[in-house]
Amino acid sequence: MMDRRSFVKKVLNGTIAGSLYLVWPMGGDSLEIPEEIPGIKGKDYDIHHQEFAFIVDITQCIGCGSCCVADKREYNVPDGNYRTWVERYVKGFSDQIYVDSPHGGLDGYQHPRTDIDEKIRDTFFVPKLCNMCKEAPCVQVCPVGATFISPDGFVLMDEKRCVGCAYCIQACPYSVRFLNPVTKVAEKCTWCYHRVRKGLLPACVEVCPTGARKFGSMKDETSEVYKILKGPGVLTVLRKEMGTFPALYYKGARREVI
């Protein structure tokens, strides 16, 4: 398996190199961030005694696109489709919000928008991915049981059972699913379940240069996500009114997002 240093260096040599060099110079131990999930790596994985959470800190996201590149390489995601993407929110002085996501943020956001005819008050970035809902609409509508919730709380897909009806795609309130044009089955982010089962962080978390993406076990009271979710501060979920109870939380989310 490719180690983290090699993987990030390969990402840096890709389409988003210019963005990352601005915030994280190469050399020394700048890339030495743990890739393992504390309390999981090297231990027997009890699938019935796990609870994970994902936190996205909007205040830390710089829109570099490294997460999207890592995801595309990890899963060979077809062009034009995204298991995770990054949206850019531009707010004018009129309070008008302009949202775009060219190529899903895969190339980063190195250039300002030139099609807005007013002064810009603020710009921020919002990563999107599967919310891992406890009450998942996609599971409820699947006619063949191809979409299911695992005992450890992950919303997963059985590609062999999927018939490509797209009911789950229509039911998802977060628009995180797509029909793979090659395999003709529904696909979505899994929080890198195959990596998590081995005690490794999701690929997008591993390469984030600013720590905007955080993942960990809620069964581990020493984990960063446990301390954040149980500590002070405001975190929110998207579309709370849907009653899906996501395990994906946002820190610093604006009212324009939620």
Write up what this structure looks like.
- With 258 residues, this protein is an alpha+beta fold.
- Residues 11-32 have low confidence and may be disordered.
- The strands form four sheets. Strands 9-1-11-10 form a four-stranded mixed sheet, with helices on one face. It has a three-stranded antiparallel sheet with strand order 3-2-4, with no helix packed on it.
- Helices cover 20% and strands 19% of the residues.
- The N and C termini lie far apart (37 Å).
Q: In which order are the strands of the major sheet placed? A: 9-1-11-10
Alpha plus pi helix count:
8
Secondary-structure element order, as H and E?
HHEHEEEHEEHEEHHEHEE
- Global structural class: alpha+beta
Beta-strand portion reads: 15-25%
Helix content: 10-25%
How many domains?
Answer: 2
> Radius of gyration in whole Å, from Cα?
18 Å
Nearest-integer average pLDDT: 88
CATH class placement of the largest domain: Alpha Beta
Total number of strands: 11
Largest sheet: 4 strands, mixed
CATH topology of the largest domain: Alpha-Beta Plaits
CATH architecture of the largest domain: 2-Layer Sandwich
Low-confidence segments: 11-32
Distance between the termini: 37 Å
The general outline is globular
